[in-house]
C-alpha cells in the first residue's frame, strides 16, 4: 500500500531566508529542483498575504504537476512552513505508470497535523536557550555578507523531528 | 523528625505560603542567563560553572532566611535530617520538585540528590561543540544555593 508521502519540508524565515530544508526519498538528491519549487511558493505566500487577512493555514498553495503539491503555513511571526506532498508515494512510483488512478486528491485537513507537529518542533527549538534566532536572520543592507551570516538550523533534535514528521506522515495519521 | 513528616511540612508550605510564578518564565530566564554567560566567557565552561556557583551562593545566603521564616523549622539533629529537609522542604517550596536522597557514604558525611525532573533544564539542549556536554554544569546554580544557605546555618 502506498499513499501520499511528504517529499520535502521547508522552514523559511521571515526574510525569506531558508532556515531548514529536508528532502525525503526518492527526492533526496533533487536539491536544486526543490529549492526552486520552494522559492516559487514564497511568491504565492506574498500574493496571498496582500490579498486578504489570512489564517495561519494557507492550505494548498499550488499543484505543481500531477504528482507534487505544495501546502503552506504562515506563523504570525512570519516564519513560513512548507510541505511538498508527493501524491503517489514511493512504492507506487517505483512500480511504474499505473499508479495514476489511485489517488483522488488530498484534503487540506490531512496536512494540518503535519504542520502542527512542525510548528511545535519549531517552538521547542526556540525555547532552547542555546538557540539564538538572531544568528539566523540576515542583516539588512550588505546582501553578500548577510547571506553567509544566516546559516540554516543545525540543531540535531529539530532536524531529527522534521525527519520523523516527514517520514511518518500519511493522511489521517496523528503525529 | 520523621521523613514523612518532613515531606508533609514541604507540601503544606508549598500549598499555602508560597507565591507561585510561571514555570516557563523561570526556565527561560535561567536558560538565557546561562546562555549569556557562555557567550560572555567565550564558552569557557569552567568559568561559567564558577560564576553560576557564585550567583547561587549569593542567592542561597538570602534565601535561607526566607526558608527559615516560612518553614519555621528548628535546627536539624543530624546530617540525615538535614538532607531530608533540603530535599523535601527546601526544593519543594522553591522549585516544587523533590529530589531523591541517596548514595550515603558509610560515615554519613556525603550524599547525593538525584533530580528526576529539573525545572531549570526543560527545553534545554546543550550546545553541540563537543565540550559542553561534559564541561558545562547547567544547573550549577543549585549547588551554589545549597552552599550559600548551608553556610549561613553554619555547616
TrEMBL record, chain A:
It comes from the Eukaryota. Pfam families: Sedlin_N (PF04628). GO terms for biological process: endoplasmic reticulum to Golgi vesicle-mediated transport. InterPro entries: Longin-like_dom_sf, Sedlin. GO terms for cellular component: cytoplasm. PANTHER family: TRAFFICKING PROTEIN PARTICLE COMPLEX SUBUNIT 2. This is Sedlin. It comes from Penicillium freii.
TrEMBL record, chain B:
The lineage of its organism: Eukaryota, Fungi, Dikarya, Ascomycota, Pezizomycotina. Coiled coil: none annotated. It comes from Penicillium freii. InterPro entries: Bet3, NO_sig/Golgi_transp_ligand-bd, TRAPP_component. Its main location: endoplasmic reticulum. PANTHER family: TRAFFICKING PROTEIN PARTICLE COMPLEX SUBUNIT 3. The keyword Acetylation does not apply. Belongs to the TRAPP small subunits family. BET3 subfamily. The keyword Endoplasmic reticulum applies. One of its GO terms (biological process) is macroautophagy. Keywords: Endoplasmic reticulum, ER-Golgi transport, Golgi apparatus, Transport. This is Trafficking protein particle complex subunit BET3. GO terms for cellular component: endoplasmic reticulum; Golgi apparatus; TRAPP complex. It is found in: Endoplasmic reticulum; Golgi apparatus, cis-Golgi network.
Amino acid at each position: 500500500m502506498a499513499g501520499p508521502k511528504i517529499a520535502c519540508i521547508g522552514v523559511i524565515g521571515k526574510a525569506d531566508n531558508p532556515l531548514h530544508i529536508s528532502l525525503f526519498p526518492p527526492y533526496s538528491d533533487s536539491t536544486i529542483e526543490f529549492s526552486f519549487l520552494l522559492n516559487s511558493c514564497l511568491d504565492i505566500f506574498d500574493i496571498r498575504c496582500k490579498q486578504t487577512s489570512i489564517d495561519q493555514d494557507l492550505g494548498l498553495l499550488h499543484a505543481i504537476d500531477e504528482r507534487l503539491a505544495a501546502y503552506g503555513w504562515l506563523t504570525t511571526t512570519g516564519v513560513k512552513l512548507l510541505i511538498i506532498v508527493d501524491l503517489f508515494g514511493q512504492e507506487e512510483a517505483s512500480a511504474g505508470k499505473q499508479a495514476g488512478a489511485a489517488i483522488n486528491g488530498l484534503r487540506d485537513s490531512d496536512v494540518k497535523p503535519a504542520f502542527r507537529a512542525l510548528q511545535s518542533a519549531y517552538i521547542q527549538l526556540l525555547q532552547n536557550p542555546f538557540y539564538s534566532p538572531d544568528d539566523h536572520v540576515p542583516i539588512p543592507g550588505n546582501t553578500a555578507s548577510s547571506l553567509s551570516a544566516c546559516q540554516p538550523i543545525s540543531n540535531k533534535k529539530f532536524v531529527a523531528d522534521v525527519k520523523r514528521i516527514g517520514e511518518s506522515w500519511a493522511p489521517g495519521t496523528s503525529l | 523528625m520523621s521523613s514523612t513528616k518532613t515531606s508533609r511540612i514541604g507540601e503544606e508550605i508549598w500549598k499555602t505560603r508560597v507565591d507561585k510564578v510561571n514555570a516557563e518564565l523561570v526556565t527561560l530566564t535561567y536558560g538565557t542567563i546561562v546562555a549569556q554567560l557562555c557567550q560572555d566567557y567565550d564558552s569557557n565552561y569552567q568559568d561559567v560553572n564558577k560564576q553560576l556557583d557564585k550567583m547561587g551562593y549569593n542567592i542561597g545566603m538570602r534565601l535561607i532566611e526566607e526558608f527559615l521564616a516560612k518553614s519555621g523549622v528548628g535546627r536539624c539533629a543530624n546530617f540525615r535530617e538535614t538532607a531530608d529537609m533540603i530535599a523535601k522542604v527546601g526544593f519543594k517550596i522553591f522549585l516544587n520538585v523533590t529530589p531523591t536522597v541517596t548514595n550515603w557514604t558509610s560515615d554519613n558525611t556525603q550524599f547525593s540528590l538525584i533530580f528526576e525532573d529539573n525545572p531549570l533544564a526543560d527545553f534545554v539542549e546543550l550546545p553541540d561543540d563537543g565540550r559542553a556536554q561534559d564541561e558545562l554544569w547547567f544547573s550549577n546554580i543549585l549547588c551554589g544555593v545549597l552552599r550559600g544557605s548551608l553556610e549561613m546555618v553554619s555547616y
